[in-house]
Amino acid sequence: MRRTIIWIGALIVGTVLGLLGIGWLDQLMTFIATIYTRLFQLLAVPTIVLAVITTFASFGSKGYGKIFGRTLTYTLLTTFAAAMVGALLYLIIAPGNLPAEAIAQGGKPTDVPQLTYYEHFINVIPNNIVKPFLEGNVLSLLLLAFAVGIGLSKLPDSDNKAVVVKGLLGLQELLFLLIRGLIWILPLGIVAFSAQLSAQVSAGLVASSIGKYVLVIISGNLIQFFIVLPLFLLTRGLNPFHVMGKMMPAVLMALFTKSSAATLPVTMETAEEGLGMRKSVARFVLPICTTINMNGCAAFILVTSLFVMQNGGTPITPGLILLWLLISVFSAVGNAGVPMGCYFLTLSLMSGIGAPVAILGIILPIYTIIDMIETAENVWSDSCVATMVDHDTNKDTQEEKI
Question: Given this model, what pLDDT does residue 206 score?
Answer without folding.
Answer: 42
